[in-house]
Amino acid sequence: MDNAGYNTGSFDGLHQVSDDDDDEMVDIAGATLDFSSTDDDPPLNSGGYEEHSPGRGMNGAGGPATMMDPLEDPVPGVGTYEDFNTIDWVREKSKDRDRHREITSKSKESTVALLHRISDAFSGWLLMLLVGLMSGALAGGIDISAHWLTDMKEGVCLNGFWFNHEHCCWTSNETTFQERDKCPQWKSWAELIVGTAEGGFAYVVNYMMFMFWALLFSFLAVILVRAFAPYACGSGIPEIKTILSGFIIRGYLGKWTLIVKTITLVLAVSSGLSLGKEGPLVHVACCCANILCHLFTKYRKNEAKRREVLSAAAAVGVSVAFGAPIGGVLFSLEEVSYYFPLKTLWRSFFAALVAAFTLRSINPFGNSRLVLFYVEFHAPWHLLELGPFILLGIFGGLWGALFIRANIAWCRRRKTTRLGHYPIVEVLVVAGVTALVSFPNSYTRMSGAELIKELFNDCSLLDSSQLCRYKQDSNTTSGTSVGNGLADRPADSGLYTALWQLSLALLFKMVITVVTFGMKVPSGLFIPSMAVGAIAGRLLGVGMEQLAYYNHDWIIFRGWCTPGADCITPGLYAMVGAAACLGGATRMTVSLVVIMFELTGGLEYIVPLMAATMTSKWVADAFGREGIYEAHIRLNGYPFLEPKEEFDHKSLAVDVMRPRRADPALAVLTQEGMTVEEAEALVDSTRYSGFPVVVSQESPRLVGFVLRRDLLISIDNARQRQEGVVSSSQVLFTEHAPAQAAEAPPPVRLRSILDLSPFTVTDHTPMDITVDIFRKLGLRQCLVTHNGRLLGIITKKDILKHMAQMANRDPDSILFN
Amino acid sequence: MDNAGYNTGSFDGLHQVSDDDDDEMVDIAGATLDFSSTDDDPPLNSGGYEEHSPGRGMNGAGGPATMMDPLEDPVPGVGTYEDFNTIDWVREKSKDRDRHREITSKSKESTVALLHRISDAFSGWLLMLLVGLMSGALAGGIDISAHWLTDMKEGVCLNGFWFNHEHCCWTSNETTFQERDKCPQWKSWAELIVGTAEGGFAYVVNYMMFMFWALLFSFLAVILVRAFAPYACGSGIPEIKTILSGFIIRGYLGKWTLIVKTITLVLAVSSGLSLGKEGPLVHVACCCANILCHLFTKYRKNEAKRREVLSAAAAVGVSVAFGAPIGGVLFSLEEVSYYFPLKTLWRSFFAALVAAFTLRSINPFGNSRLVLFYVEFHAPWHLLELGPFILLGIFGGLWGALFIRANIAWCRRRKTTRLGHYPIVEVLVVAGVTALVSFPNSYTRMSGAELIKELFNDCSLLDSSQLCRYKQDSNTTSGTSVGNGLADRPADSGLYTALWQLSLALLFKMVITVVTFGMKVPSGLFIPSMAVGAIAGRLLGVGMEQLAYYNHDWIIFRGWCTPGADCITPGLYAMVGAAACLGGATRMTVSLVVIMFELTGGLEYIVPLMAATMTSKWVADAFGREGIYEAHIRLNGYPFLEPKEEFDHKSLAVDVMRPRRADPALAVLTQEGMTVEEAEALVDSTRYSGFPVVVSQESPRLVGFVLRRDLLISIDNARQRQEGVVSSSQVLFTEHAPAQAAEAPPPVRLRSILDLSPFTVTDHTPMDITVDIFRKLGLRQCLVTHNGRLLGIITKKDILKHMAQMANRDPDSILFN
């Protein structure tokens, strides 16, 4: 997940004018241009100006509706946004309310209009239904395909190559309970090629085939991503967070990204790389939602409404990834969303349920369960076990903090050194190493999800897993019953072997995940983090179990852990550990606990999970407040105003606004008296995306604000369509035209594109309040006044740069506005 | 729950000046004065002025920290609020950030300061822990006492009068499984008084004693509420919603309210009135939180921080009411809270868990379960059952809408007619009627919670409940096993009797709840609504069951409801019905589903619950958008800006601001040139709570805003402490004193109380945007400018009045600011 995707391919053109100042006031349009500016206080009015083609992108939104003259037709293109820009939430929401008002008032006139109103009211729910159905179906397809391709690495089904291992053996009649995974129809590659499954040579053949498929899958994945949709790489969650906060990245949620991401996700997961499908599923669900938005005018034309749908889609993604609809909604609320009104809460919940139900109907896991890791524990936990759970929390926090540091350092290296130029080689090398190392160890050979399932599992008497190799205790066999059979027992040598293998797997997973997350293939972090935590938890759990078994008389075990009792459940420790590690990396808390709680379906384990995740969050926060997604957002320079972080400095608006003291005066338009030529010259000589309009140069009292894009489009439009408009025509922002000489050319009246309600703060406003206003209202810029006179302007980028400066970070790392 | 509590008792003085205009601009201080103003455009500058005593209320908050001069000592009382006023969220949050900044910067100096910083950081969590422990303990006490007193109405335990029925019979050795509730130690009143439990006379004695206790309990409850804490009545949720949105009602969450509410809640629940303890438990938890806030300076002195804690306490309340911590958090988020940052989400969750755990340790239900109605259903539901579930949703929605209308009409009648003058008589009459009618019917005689438990229950073979009187079917007895025993069976005559009784109970509950909710005793709505829905659901469920049993061959039953199968679970219908009715009354959706889901612990029933609650919400919304709590807020005239409702009108800020076109000019202060006398005269002649400060009368460019309370306190303070200050001293709001004649008295410098960053909007700002700003930033007032000149002011009350006008409601119903 790095920024290279934007620098390469279709975005190379952005480097053209990279040597300019970055000192623009409202550099919305210029945002994509200043990748590498270093000069801190350059002269104003320099810098290139990229031509703005009117009507590009989504047109016809009808201009800033709040101040539109109803008599004039809206000029196409006015009120839309450029790529890599921040939307104005207030304007978008106002636009939607205008639309809604219009429909409501029209609905009283005719039945058709009334039907339109009703269909409009229900279109949100219908859209949610479609998003749920589509995402659920896609997730089911991905699950099934990934399962099949993963098994393909080990062998093939004779009944049909399209059966996976489990499916293949279902159709077999001869399978007994014990031998379920060994049926004659399923042949390993060695059996097919050299005719035997035994012996060293067969092992080598299987090994080779395993590596071959892993390399093939990863190669296909990276090639497809490179060739068709560079945006399909990574987990997508950092970008979705940024998009939901109001940023525009065209094509990031488009159909090509959807198709390529769906296919390459299956390939990447099957290749055995240390990555999961959960984050990318959120991206896939958001793509579905974005594409389906095009069916409804209400959502197609309004960036704010669209983001409400995307917030719900994020919930859908997690819902289908884990089968946890409530957890998904909370994930969207806690981790991803920026603007999450109650309406979105209800709709997210609905969509998440529909998706989970669709997935259940597809039944990809073949167990009729909604959830990925269904576990049932038989024993309650004891209060004293909170000790080890908190230890797991500390481990998770430490691992999370370490992982974030290492991964960011590695990704930065990829961005800045020549490593980033060879993404295909990188993926192949990592995939090769992963396959090479993981084949000999059965716990790394199996997929991440299977490993977690195995680790979460509570040992029953009939369990054939190596992790359940306990000695049959004489105490329990005498009073034999199912309940007693689950009692703590001494570990057998098989279990000790498994523990060794697990320890090695833990080390390997910890290292390889750092280099894997961020490669140019779809890669989620949930499963690898959970795997690390689950291994650590299981190790600790088995350790505790053995400790308790051999030391029943210790004071801490006395009373609750009598001989023959089932007092410690290692699977629960694995679950707690998984939550702790995932929490350390992502800093989720409530949503994580709810997801884990939905996985097990028991309220009993909320307290252990909560204890571990809170500890993990506190420990990790001590090393740095950012979760992995925020770290990647910052690494990529997206303009993201973190809602969780408090602005803690004492600066005032006047310290942050442009122009600074040494700068030339603010570039402003006057409400009358400027000619078309002058206005165009002003626009041409600057790169700001918007200009304040004042009463006059002498009396800089604020009248309104006009966006560069709207201004240029409108002037072009006037020149083409309005008769007599020449360069010396006056540009008028006033309501009534002033008296003019009779022979003067007709003026260009632009009040309709003027935002008459720009946000202002006074120069004395503390920055903490200003940041709060930007966050809560979703502003793009805000004007600064002193005693009613315009002083300057603050943009989101200015704020982010200021915050970076205050935190001793490089302010130039903020790339976009 | 009506407003009479404020008009009577300690608030009678508020009527003194009720004949004045209500046309004030910033009528914060005047808010409590204008109860009955009717004049719409009276002359400005009239009206009484109540003396403001400096230092009243909570002092020492240190003034508006954002613009405080660090050299001056803060004047005590500056920066605090009057009773029945709205807080300024922005100012409060800014104050807290200043405090935090100070602690952080000091922490580098010494170890003590560092420890202070650490303790400050963890004080929030500690407070949450305490709130959870205290609320959990109180809830446990309430549960146990209510259980005991409820049983007291029917009889007494010979082993000790402090045992309840169940507890009494536990200690009995002779009880068998069947006869558990008939043990010799437990004597009904008839047995004690007339010596026999049989015959008509014994019945009459029991009936009389039942009524006696009901009347006694309700009398005690209403007397205690009237005498000690008028705020203890009602559910408290409307007031808590208002308080959380930033309103101040002193004493509403105080210790007397807590004590009286806890005691009277037990009495009211035990008296058999149709009310529940869930809403009042939220109030109790909030009282606990508010009282515990006094232990920590951080929360004691900051109204915004305190509200974060109260939001969490609301979650705690529901958590202990239902044993549903996640549902509680979502309830707080969806239904109660106004400002709910992620930090509060985490803390709410923590506190809710602690509380639930404390309650479980107390184990008031004696079943080791966290939840109130633990149910386990054995059969899954079928997709076709969604039909009846949606029917239940429609019923719930209709009932909810009807209930709200009827209840509000009744409460309005209580407020406006003489009915409201006899609250004690009212309570006694309602309690008497309830007891009289409910004794003969066993389903109304039992408490609401017991009734719901009975209705939710899935019939097992050994169940002795009348609702499980099915004929033993010959089909099933042949192949007898526990699984088959649960199959659908034909109803016995006992069941038909039960259904008749239930129908009567339904009618009675529907009527009596309307008059009960809003009486002067603590009364929750959750249990009565759920009871209504559960009865309706059970009736429909049994009906469906019998229909399916006798018509296995119908096309809709074919395939899934074969003879001998357990295809329809009437208990599930009851649960869905309960959710639908509660949803119809309160308009909760997600939180309700999660609460119900936590009650059963099974993800399987989310879809039926969701279908019913969404249907219920849609149906009820068609008759009026307001839930019962919002309706009560409006009935009481609280200044509550509903975050769910969209502002849908086309008005501009200029249409809403004061002064209106016909009004006299805005009362402003100038930054220099005014004397103390002039300033005091301006303040005395108006009732506004704040005044804009402008450059000069000729050039009304905005400099800042000063609050009436702060201004008066500061002038008083200067007169007393500053030497030479006389009435002709200049009042200066500027940074530097202008040149003055040598003999002139020293000026009063008030820049420190001047808010230099008042919020402004332009006159052209659409009101939808303005409302959004008020909601999101929690503003109290906002100034309106045009081209940099001050035009007027908009307060929260102005907005609410405007909204009322737009909705064709009486704008004078908004009482407070």
N/C terminus separation of chain A:
20 Å
Report mean pLDDT of chain A, rounded to a whole number. 81
Oligomer: homodimer
Ranges of chain A where pLDDT stays below 50 over 5 or more residues in a row are 1-72, 474-484
Q: What is the CATH topology descriptor of the largest domain in chain A?
A: CBS-domain
Helix content of chain A: 40-55%
Q: Please compute the radius of gyration of chain A using only Cα atoms.
A: 30 Å
CATH class of the largest domain in chain A: Alpha Beta
Report the major sheet of chain A: 3 strands, mixed
Largest interface: chains, residues each: A-B, 71 and 70 residues
Please tally the β strands of chain A and state the result.
Answer: 11
Spatial arrangement of strands, main beta sheet of chain A: 3-5-6
Helix count of chain A?
30
Choose one word for the global shape of chain A: elongated
Give the percentage of residues in beta strands of chain A.
Answer: 5-15%
> Could you say which structural class the secondary elements and strand pairing of chain A correspond to?
mainly alpha
Provide an overview of this structure.
Two copies of one chain form a homodimer. Chain A has 817 residues and is mostly helical. Chain A has three domains: 1-76 and 642-817, CBS-domain (Roll), CATH 3.10.580; 124-362, Orthogonal Bundle (Clc chloride channel); 383-625, Clc chloride channel (Orthogonal Bundle). In chain A, 52% of the residues lie in helices and 5% in strands. Chain A is built from 30 helices and eleven strands. In chain A, the strands form four sheets. Chain A has a three-stranded mixed beta sheet with strand order 3-5-6. Chain A has a three-stranded mixed beta sheet with strand order 4-7-8. The first copy, chain A, is elongated and about 105 Å long. The relative contact order of chain A is 0.12. At the A-B interface, helix 2, helix 12, helix 13, helix 23 and helix 24 of A face helix 2, helix 12, helix 13, helix 23 and helix 24 of B.
